[in-house]
Amino acid sequence: MNFPHIHLLLNHFPVIGTIIGLGLFLVGLSDEHQQMRRAALILFAVLAFVTIPVFISGVGAQVVLRKAAVSNVMIQRHEGAAMLALAFMEMTGAAALAGLWESYRISRPTRVNSAAVLLLSVVTVGLMARTGNTGGDIRHPEIGGLQESTGTEGRLGAFVHTFEPEPDKISNLMVFTKWTTAFLMDLHFIGLVLIVGTIGIYNVRILGIAKQMPVAPLHRLLPWGLMGLGINVATGLAVFVGAPEDYTFNAVLWLKIVALGLLGANAAVFYLAGIFNNVERLGPGDEAPFPAKVVAMTSLVLWCAVITFGRYIQVFQHSIAKSSN
Amino acid sequence: MAVPAFLDTIEQTRVSLWLRESESVFGFYFVLLFHTFGLSMLVGASAVLDLRILGVAPDLPLKSLKWLFRTIWVGFAINVTTGLLLVLAYPTKAFTNPVFYIKLSLVAIGLITMQKIKARVFDDSVLSEVAVAPRARSMAIWSLLVWTGALTAGRLLAYTAPYLVYGVRGG
To answer: Is B117 a member of any domain?
Structure first.
């Protein structure tokens, strides 16, 4: 198992998944199929997460394939397309989480939110398809999409390309100005504080400490935690893009991503298995049921793991060998 | 201004050398990790109190949040301990950097603001929402700004140090 394997294994999920998500979302726009819309929002949030390891393993694949007979021009074009697709995928995921919050607060997402999710996901589907195509061109030039020698492509493709970042330029920007990294890391810590403050206190309450707090009003703090999460996904990815090779070949970064994935699964159990509805009813002094405590404890342990791995990323740079097999 | 020699003396002690140079995962970065846990308790609890005073989660009774002041002090205690160890590891780096003093001042102002909020809002036996309003709100905004500043100053220590260790220029 190496980075090209992982990349090839995971890379179809965002491309196909966003198409399925958009289909579900369109059906869910009618009032009879509210559940479909909710399913689409959950799917978009999951895909926003999955796209991160796809992107990172892509950088790994690029380095591993450097010695192989593949075109660097094609890889650069693919990476530029991937960066733009990733940015829109994360925005779609953020809008989807906001929509899920609204469906909890006022029983259904607002029109503004649905319009935003629709617009962002349509763009994401297109950009993901383009990423898939430019990626396919790396290994299958016989299909004949992009002409490497001339770099020519269709009119729409050329238009989209004007928005695509040039990976090399971005990497240089971050590496050469330490203040960019300093600013992003500062925001990353502000995001961390928001997450720990809101989600941490909620979990602590469910575990039975400070039981005088009623649970439902406490849950209203969650959007601030989600905002922290959004800040940290954005700043984390920006720092990654600044020096991709320092992070891709880093075992601790991968552990952090696994821990974040487990947190997503834990949250899914909490909200979808009826545990959330059980704790919403808890007033001052009420004891949470045992399954809720298990989920809360899991969340606290995993967030501690995320912070621990985050802290040690710097120590474990280049802890994964760059050999090609 | 010459860098005082006693900083070099501290750096040559066994504890300081071990913290700085140990390959163990329980060395410098372990202390830094607990400094992060401490700050997230200290600033996380403060931020939630501030947000509540500013009108977020209005159905959450103010009184039920009073326990968070204990979390603030536990976080502060962790960070005084780990902070002393971090300074022990890199005394020249800390004491020659003006940002270090700005950070300590902001932490002090942050704690004083939280104490004022506690006295004004939470030690009031009646705890009426109406009385809390304007003055507490401005203190909550100040608190958020000061903690953001303290956090930023702390982060910047890694990028602004004129010296790494005694006699070795940084930056």
So the answer is: yes
